[in-house]
Amino acid sequence: MNPSLLIQIPFFPEQASNFAFEIDLFYLFLCALTAFFTVLIAAAAIYFLIRYRRRSQGEVPEQIEGHLKLEIAWTVIPFVISMFIFAWGAKLYYQMYTHPKDALEIFITGKQWMWRAQHPDGQREINELHVPLGRRVKLTMTSEDVIHAYYIPAFRTKTDVVPGRYTTSWFTPTKVGTYHLFCAEYCGTQHSGMIGKVTVMEYSDYQAWLRGVPREKSPAEAGQQLFTSLACSNCHVENNTGRGPSLQNLFGTDVKLANGATVKVDETYLRESILNPGAKVVAGYTNDMPTFQGLVTEEQVAMIIQYIKSIGPKQGAASTTAPSAASPAPAAQGVERPALPQAAKPAAPQGEQPKQD
Ligand code: CUA
User: Fold this and answer.
1) How many Å lie between the centroid of ligand 1 and the Cα of residue 214?
2) Could you say which of 61, 84, 90, 312 is the most buried, measured as most Cβ atoms within 10 Å of its Cβ?
3) Where are the domains of the chain?
4) What is the DSSP string of 94-163?
């Protein structure tokens, strides 16, 4: 089917991401199905009303004891239709929530009432988002205060942005242009003003744009500075010789906890350990660390996490440095690559499915 056919429908936002066409198709299918059965049932009701009306005062209708074939039909047909809707919806959902590992990762913070974005090399923008055409883009998002939702109608993506948690969303922009960005979760008096622009640019234009934005430290560099200035580095020294566990080569691995459980070191675990260090203490250590709740913003927490990722195990072709002999064994065992994606990586073909996590 030709995707451009659907673009002509008035009131629909433009289709500017890899998901847009199929989501519109699904939506139109549901509308058509609803319209078909509405008309069918209404027409049948009107026809029966007339056809089987009482024709005389004393008329007694014929008794009907059921009709097996008819009953099977009206059970099986709706079952098949609803399972088809379920399967199609589940497939779309699975695609949208299975994040590609090779995506350009942009960090988004929601705050009453603005959207902040930070690119992998440190460029920041407010109430705007610049993304390259044809590249997979992953948004990692959190909120400084209440629940917001990052909604780009032209991409057909909408994801809640929740305080105390990282949520993610991904898409491949497929059309150059400028599109609306909305907050889609009521978040206070200026919720309706929490809007912005998403600009899709050719890859070369995106690179030029990145160069034009005053570059600050990359999140990982800023995180390293915080790591020193907040004195994290006093206890978390290399080779596990300090009061806290070493953070080298940690990200993406599994660690044993004091209570015997095992936890995977991901963004959520690191964030929790910064803000609530006693929640999951690593085996062999005591709960000595003070909380940093209130001392660091969500953006700073994210920077520290980026720093910890940057000193995590490196692996695979994406690594820009040759694997060092000191690399720990987990790097060879398919641990998720923690390094930030490099902006210069080749584009993935449009519409291709992401690798599964
Ligand atoms: Cu933020 Cu509504």
Assistant:
1) 28
2) 312
3) 13-51+99-215, 219-324
4) HHHHS--TTSEEEEEEEETTEEEEE-TTS-EEESEEEEETTS-EEEEEEESSS-EEEEEGGGTEEEEE-B
Integer Cα distance of 260 and 282 in angstroms: 9
Measured by CA distance, the residue closest to atom 1 of ligand 1 is: 148
pLDDT of residue 337: 37
Can you read off the two tokens belonging to residue 299?
A: 């953006």
Q: Which atom of ligand 1 is nearest to the CA of 187?
A: 2
Query: How far does the centroid of ligand 1 lie from the alpha carbon of residue 51, in Å?
Result: 55
Per-residue pLDDT reduced to its tens digit, 276-333: 888 888 888 888 888 888 788 888 888 888 888 888 776 433 333 333 333 333 333 3
Quick check: 253 and 265 in contact, CB under 8 A?
Answer: yes
Distance 182 CA to ligand 1 centre (A): 8
Q: Does the C-beta of 184 come closer than 6 Å to ligand 1?
A: no
Is 111 close to ligand 1, i.e. is its CB under 6 Å away?
Answer: no
Q: Which CATH architecture has domain 219-324?
A: Orthogonal Bundle (1.10)
User: Is the pTM value of this prediction over 0.70?
Assistant: no
Handedness of CA 120, 122, 128, 131 (dihedral sign): negative
Q: Is the minimum distance from the CB of 183 to ligand 1 under 6 angstroms?
A: yes
The per-residue pLDDT for 187 is 94
108 lines ligand 1 (CB under 6 A): no
Q: How far is the CA of 116 from the centre of ligand 1 (A)?
A: 13
> Which superfamily, per CATH, for 13-51+99-215?
Cupredoxins -  blue copper proteins (2.60.40.420)
Question: Is there a common fold for 13-51+99-215 and 219-324?
Answer: no
Average pLDDT, rounded, for the chain: 82
Which of 1-5, 128-132, 218-222 is predicted with the least confidence, judged by mean pLDDT? Answer: 1-5
**Ligand 1 in reach of 145 Cβ (< 6 A):** no
